[in-house]
Write a structure and sequence with these properties.
mainly alpha; rod-shaped; 1 helix; binds zinc ion
C-alpha cells in the first residue's frame, strides 16, 4: 500500500499513480531517484578517476621564480 503525498489517499500496491488525484506514488519516485543517484555517483567516480589520471599524466610546470 502506498499513501499519496498530495491527497493522502491510500492506494493498493502495484499502482504507479494515485487513483484519486493521478499524481505519481512515492514508491515509484523513490525507485527513480535511487537510479538517478547511482548514475550520479558513477559519474562522480569516473570524473575523479579522470582528474587523478590527468594530475599524474600531465607534465608539471615548475614555478617560475623572479
Ligand atoms: Zn493522490
Amino acid at each position: 500500500m502506498a499513501v499519496c503525498l498530495f491527497c493522502q489517499e491510500e492506494n493498493p500496491s502495484g499502482l504507479t499513480n494515485c487513483k484519486q488525484c493521478g499524481m505519481a506514488l512515492p514508491k515509484e519516485q523513490e525507485k527513480r531517484k535511487q537510479k538517478g543517484i547511482a548514475r550520479f555517483v558513477w559519474f562522480v567516480i569516473l570524473l575523479a578517476l579522470f582528474c587523478a589520471a590527468m594530475i599524474v599524466w600531465l607534465p608539471r610546470t615548475p614555478p617560475v621564480a623572479g
